[in-house]
Amino acid sequence: MALNMEKKQEVVAEVSAQVARAQAIILAEYRGLEAGDMTALRAQARKAGVYFRVLKNTLARRAVADTPFAPLAEKMVGPLAFAISADPVAAAKVLNEFAKGNEKLVIKGGAMPNTVMGPREVASLAALPSREELLAKLLGTMQAPIAQFVRTLNEVPARFVRTLAAVRDSKQAA
């Protein structure tokens, strides 16, 4: 189905809005992928908060023009699906996980602001923990000394009470 000029402008505006909030854009070739698999991939992307869209490369080039993702336009060749996310790891993780189970989805590359990545870099990015995991680890690391300090402070009165109980028991026994 061909898009008229007005529809194309709407699509470019929608994708441009996503690119403006993006921290990562991942490109994947979907040649030979069945419709059911593509639907499953879209569902996984939506669940992870990733904007996933099959788009004409000319429209995608217009959407990334004059953004930090402009160098990515050189990689836009062939039938591509675009995964755009505000979490730099989420898009790479979703596509990488899906590509492991389906060899017809081939990751062609990606970009973070002012940095173009190849398939290897995208796989490395997908191996990183997500933002939530990193925040949880940071919080655990920050809480550990405080928790240990509280346990130490709590041990002083507890030891005193145990000593008093031992003295009381020894006096009662004598």
Automatic annotation (TrEMBL):
SUPFAM superfamilies for this protein = Ribosomal protein L10-like (SSF160369)
Keywords on this record? Ribonucleoprotein, Ribosomal protein, RNA-binding, rRNA-binding
Q: Which residues form a coiled coil?
A: none
Q: Look up the record and report any one GO term of the cellular component aspect.
A: ribosome
Cross-referenced InterPro entries, in alphabetical order?
A: Ribosomal_uL10, Ribosomal_uL10-like_sf, Ribosomal_uL10_bac, Ribosomal_uL10_bac_type
> What's the stated role of this polypeptide?
Forms part of the ribosomal stalk, playing a central role in the interaction of the ribosome with GTP-bound translation factors.
Q: Which family does it belong to?
A: Belongs to the universal ribosomal protein uL10 family.
Quaternary structure annotation from Swiss-Prot or TrEMBL: Part of the ribosomal stalk of the 50S ribosomal subunit. The N-terminus interacts with L11 and the large rRNA to form the base of the stalk. The C-terminus forms an elongated spine to which L12 dimers bind in a sequential fashion forming a multimeric L10(L12)X complex.
UniProt xrefs under NCBIfam families: PRK00099.1-1
- The protein depicted here goes by the name Large ribosomal subunit protein uL10
Species for this entry: Thiobacter aerophilum
